[in-house]
């Protein structure tokens, strides 16, 4: 399953990247995130693997992030893997004016087992979650004081 989402953020692209590329900010716009730890590599760089632990309802879900492309301020991609799910997230940041940035996210999911059935029955669930994170990041970013 593949889909693309986009959102405009009322900040210059440099500020968007500054906030997006800081792992300390993750919990501020991903409230379901419990922890984030680097497993191998240099934090934030291509090839680095990290473990993310999320609370989804009453469950905890661990996933591995592998940074595949880091060409900021334009492009950041990563693969996120957990049981029965492989997800490529390709982020592009486009300056559309001096104080406006368009964030485009292309998602590709490959699932197996029960998750594949869920994806076939409720594909909107995946898109809705991605959109929620984008909205939360926009709200977080636009309410930060420059610094």
TrEMBL record:
Gene3D superfamilies documented for this protein: 3.30.530.20
UniProt superkingdom: Bacteria
Signal peptide: none
Any Pfam family: Polyketide_cyc2
Protein name: SRPBCC family protein
Source organism of this protein record: Thalassotalea litorea
């Amino acid at each position: 399953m593949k889909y693309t989402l986009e959102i405009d953020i009322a900040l210059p692209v440099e500020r968007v990247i500054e906030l997006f590329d800081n792992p300390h900010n993750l919990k501020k716009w991903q409230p379901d995130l419990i922890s984030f730890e680097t497993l191998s590599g240099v934090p934030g760089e291509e090839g680095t693997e990290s473990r993310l632990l999320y609370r989804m309802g009453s469950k905890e879900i661990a996933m591995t992030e592998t940074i595949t492309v880091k060409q900021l301020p334009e492009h950041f991609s990563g693969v996120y893997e957990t049981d029965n799910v492989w997800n490529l997230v390709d982020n592009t940041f486009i300056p559309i004016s001096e104080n406006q940035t368009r964030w485009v996210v292309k998602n590709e999911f490959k699932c197996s087992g029960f998750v594949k059935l869920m994806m076939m029955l409720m594909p909107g669930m995946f898109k809705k979650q991605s959109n929620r994170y984008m909205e939360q990041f926009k709200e977080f970013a636009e309410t930060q004081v420059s610094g």
